[in-house]
């Protein structure tokens, strides 16, 4: 297990942090950080944490930093202000996207105890071609033809019998269309309808099809949630369907070095948006902050190759920012990009040091999926961790994050990932410490992904603190190491991409080498 330096962080109050965003001191771009050794010294944990504190303050003020919402606009303003203070001329690239805001509710109350089911995990609103009827209803739960061996529950009016007043009905999927079941329930007098999945199926699907005349709220639940509901007929159940669905504008932020070869551009990116209702401090404040501090500290560097930094919008809505950027490039502009580096979640509390599997040694990618040159990017990151005497491992190269649109057009890519919802194994705990069987990030896509610790599982996070220094949902050791890894890789390729694409740059190479030993030696300096 690596030796860790103990640090104590004082997190200011939300009000004080909010003021800090508006009155942030000008970013400082140190001169001559033109080598791996210099840039990794200049990019400090303190500097990265200042950016995370600013993101937390934004979320405290606005509720989250999700695309299409005020907190994301404030995050864009913060990144732009920091880049301008460092001497860049950032570009804010606007694009439209389909915005969804889900505020649906499903609860059950029995004997004074209320169970809340999780939207997106236990249930979803039913999506009809004609739209999902919005509204809220509370009533007694009525099981309609359950259990239903032939899965025809609710397919005929006779299935409902005479419903008591203020009924919420629970049906089984199958036998006829979802819309048929919902309209039949309404005709029978139900105030709301719940349809559960087939036995053993805990996936979630929305009802698709025409449902003319439907006005009552309707939701679809997993089989497990449906069984749980069915165990308490007569319970008081509340169903609320409440959502926004519209086209909104959001933004990418781009900035590049003043010097360098434009036809051999090195790109590095991180998504700036959070999920709704969360600060998104690890996902992906961590990657955004590490990249921002790297950009600030190398602004006065004179690299051989142009370095273009990117902070993507609407990644959580489906990689939309990076897809928009790549889709707008001409063929020549695509050819001008030597490689792309992606940094998404680099400070997970129960971390592992994951490197995108550019050589497909794990065999998880289909043949031809990974562009040539990606293996050499992986080599650079491996060389960095080896130079620090730290373990690392392959991370699946599946296209799950913003590198996906780049590799889709043949641009070599790589990057770092400290883990999300997957659980840490005993073998990984032997390498990195931490809690076996707990997720790398127990607050992944949850409101507890913050700097304050609010909403976190106290027992689990206390156990993590036995091995790690944590600030809220950030492992400061992992973030400190990976901020250096970000800076080292960007600087390496800023001066030499020859191992990736065969393009040799004039002058002395400050990073990449033709051998792993040479790379380790440079990183260790």
How is this structure best described in words?
- The chain has 525 residues and is an alpha/beta fold.
- Helices cover 32% and strands 21% of the residues.
- The chain contains 16 helices and 18 strands.
- It has an eight-stranded mixed β-sheet, with helices on both faces. An eight-stranded mixed β-sheet has the order 3-2-9-5-6-7-8-4, with helices on both faces. A two-stranded antiparallel sheet has the order 17-18.
- Strand 11, helix 7 and strand 12 form a beta-alpha-beta unit.
- Helix 1 crosses helix 3.
- It is elongated and about 85 Å long.
- The two termini are 23 Å apart.
- The relative contact order is 0.15.
In short:
This protein is an alpha/beta fold.
* Strands, total number: 18
- How many helices in DSSP terms? 16
Indicate the proportion of strand residues. Answer: 15-25%
- Oligomer type: single chain
- Write out the strand line-up for the largest beta sheet, numbering strands in chain order: 1-10-12-11-13-16-14-15
- Overall mean confidence score, pLDDT: 91
Helical residue percent band: 25-40%
Largest sheet: 8 strands, mixed
Uncertain runs with pLDDT below 50, 5 residues or more?
1-26, 508-516
The Rg value, from CA coordinates, equals 26 Å
What spatial form do the alpha-carbon principal axes imply?
elongated
Structural category is alpha/beta
- Separation of the first and last Cα atoms: 23 Å
